[in-house]
Design goal:
By secondary structure, the chain is of the alpha/beta class. About 35% of the residues lie in helices and about 25% in strands. The protein is elongated. It binds adenosine-5'-diphosphate (ADP) and magnesium ion. The site of magnesium ion has 4 residues, from helix 1.
Length: about 350
């Protein structure tokens, strides 16, 4: 029907004078896991609430599963599932009773609902807890039920708003696995998280939102490439007889653009040009230095990208330039020595 699972066109949400979501336009492809990142207050949850028809846009429009958010809101609701920021669960009901309750809200026929509940409990490995009161569950177990609750009506698109917030590492891991499985079954996933590792591991593409606007949007790899100065390489050298003299000599090489001493033996050296590694090695040897190891890294992390596009310093520059990174003229900070 449509190649996009979601299409936002100048979507805007104001609370009084305050603009929480500011003229947001982006598309999410069918079958994607789309990472929706941004600092607290960036407007992520507000955007998700609008796309789930829980909040009215102030202006702009969006299509969800091919249906217009405003004109076809009932159709939109039929195609989506929401794992909300706050869990909605009845503590005094059992897992199955909770799921039945929500299944009835979705008007799923009784027999089909029972089958679906069993399938989903199996998906999250909770079959044996089916008839146990939610009040006896750990936070992680509750969250697994909360996640499958969103899957009851077999949605095409699932919104997961910080599904691993406050969970222990084991549960976090299992929720990530479940997210992958949901996606593997053909469901488009919009995932909000503060865990960059999670965003990077799961997302096909990532949007970083700040002040209700897109600050960057691309695949994790491309985002990382963007902030790495491509002709600069960062070498980590371990020199067993490192002296300040030698450090001075390396630093004075033209190919070396920045450098820092990590400890008695280790240097991080940013260098430019094809011949950089040769020159560094020659210099160290010439000065009688003994190289124990050299590592070479050009990789930045998604966290670097996040801080680069939302951090205070970069934010000021970004507003001067007003050039969103996904249009291809993003701010490219000089590769740093970390
Ligand atoms: N119902 C509301 N009334 C007034 N302000 C709101 C309301 N909901 C959210 N906001 C404000 O909108 C901004 C974006 O909030 P939110 O979408 O929850 O951010 P995020 O999920 O990215 O942390 C925040 O500054 C928040 O305080
Ligand atoms: Mg939020």
């Amino acid at each position: 029907m449509t190649e996009y699972a979601i299409e936002l066109n100048n979507l805007t949400k104001k609370f009084g004078d305050f603009t929480a979501v500011d003229d947001l336009s982006l598309t999410v492809k069918e079958g994607e896991i789309f990472g929706f990142l941004g600092p607290n207050g960036a407007g992520k949850s507000t955007t998700i609430r609008m796309l789930c028809t829980l909040a009215q846009p102030t202006s702009g429009s969006a299509k969800v599963a091919g249906y217009d958010l405003i004109k076809d809101s009932a159709r939109v609701r039929e195609n989506i599932g929401l794992v909300a920021e706050k869990m909605i669960m009845y503590d005094r009901l059992t897992a199955a009773e909770n799921l039945r309750f929500f299944g009835k809200l979705y008007e799923i026929p009784k027999q089909k609902l029972e089958k679906r509940i069993d399938e989903l409990l199996e998906l999250v490995d909770m079959q044996e807890w089916k008839n146990t009161q939610i009040s006896k569950f750990s936070t992680g177990m509750k969250q697994r039920i909360n996640v499958i609750r969103a899957l009851l009506p077999e949605p095409k698109i699932v919104f997961m708003d910080e599904p691993t917030l406050g969970l222990d590492p084991q549960t976090t891991f299992s929720i990530r696995d479940i997210t992958r499985e949901i996606n593997d079954s053909g469901v488009t996933v919009i995932l909000t998280t503060h865990a960059m590792v999670e965003a990077e591991a799961l997302s096909d593409r990532v949007a970083i939102i700040d002040h209700g606007k897109v600050a960057a949007l691309d695949t994790p790899q491309k985002l990382k490439n963007m902030i790495t100065n491509s002709d600069t390489t960062i070498f980590g050298t371990k020199i067993t007889n490192l002296t300040s003299d030698l450090i001075g000599k390396i630093n004075s090489l033209d190919v070396v653009t920045a450098m820092s001493q990590q400890d008695d033996y280790n240097l991080k050296i940013s260098a430019k040009g094809d011949d950089a590694l040769n020159q560094i090695i020659d210099t160290v040897r010439h000065e009688g230095g003994n190289i124990a190891s050299i590592t070479n890294s050009n990789e930045s992390t998604l966290e670097d990208v996040f801080l680069a596009v939302t951090g205070k310093e970069m934010r000021d520059q970004a507003s001067e330039k007003a050039a969103p990174v996904h249009h291809g003229h993003g701010h490219t900070p000089k590769a740093r020595v970390r």
